[in-house]
UniProtKB/TrEMBL annotation:
GO terms for molecular function: hydrolase activity. The lineage of its organism: Eukaryota, Fungi, Dikarya, Basidiomycota, Agaricomycotina. This is Amidohydrolase-related domain-containing protein. It comes from the Eukaryota. Belongs to the metallo-dependent hydrolases superfamily. Residues 1-47 are annotated as: Disordered. It comes from Heliocybe sulcata. Gene3D superfamilies: Metal-dependent hydrolases. It holds the Pfam family Amidohydro_2. Residues 221-330 form the Amidohydrolase-related domain.
Amino acid sequence: MSADAQSTPFGARRKGPKTLPKLPLSAFSPPNSGTSEKFPLPPSPSAVRPTSIIDADVVSFSAWRGLTGEELESKIGGVVLSFQDQSSEEVQRAIDQLETTAEGIPVIAALVPFALDEGAPAEPPAYLSNSSKVPLALAATFSTPSAHSVSALSWALSADRVVDISVQADLVNGDAGWDALEDFLTKSTAELAGKGTIVLSNILPPPHDLSLPLVKLLTHATYRAFQSHSAAISLFPNVYLKYLPPVWETDGTPLDESQLKEWKRRVKMYLGHVVEAFGFERIIFGSAPLHPSLPSGRWYELARESLAELGVDQEAMDAVFGGNAKKVYGGSS
């Protein structure tokens, strides 16, 4: 060992610049896609459109036909007709006259009334006992859990029914409404091992205060409650969410372009989280209730653009706007 080496203390920093490894030029080049030297870009949101559309919530077929808009009208592959707010006699007459198509559009299923607060029926309504040309799903409303509502939903699911539930619990003021919904689902499905299917509406998007500035929404208590509780609900494997027009208060006049953009920004905040929690396989598009400020055709455009701008692919788009509804409602009895 030389005298210089012996005189250099261990760990002493050597003078002069450190020699850095040289990176190959390929490290600064885009990946080779096989077709282009440029980085691959995601598809434009305007290019991702459903191949075919099933509207899974049509209340008034005649009114719906007049408000669909060009693209929804041209790509419609089926509808789910809702008779939820009609009397038993009216429902029976409607089912007797129901055909597998309406004005040339396939009828995938019909939603018929089902009262949760009456408990498990001793005998099913006559329209459920009689044969129907199209599958029938049950339509109910939930506000607060009770022994009757739990037994009614358990009865329907044990019969392997599809149950559409409009959630009318208070989802804005604290966690109580969300907790009630989770408790209801837990007790109703506890011993059923995934039988039946539940489709929840009025959650995507949920009730919302439009006066709340968008910049405050991310940290607001209502949005945080939505995130945590919707994620908890996604753990029920047989629960789907229906993607419907927001029930947000307006003056009843059609939304202008500025308002539509603002609504879309808010819808995307809720939709993005739901896609993460549920996956696109458990979201079902529908257009009811008919909103005075947002006709079904305009709602379809807003709903499609909101989903496309999240960067989803064609498979996801086709599932949300048709495939999921066909899978869920087409197999009902």
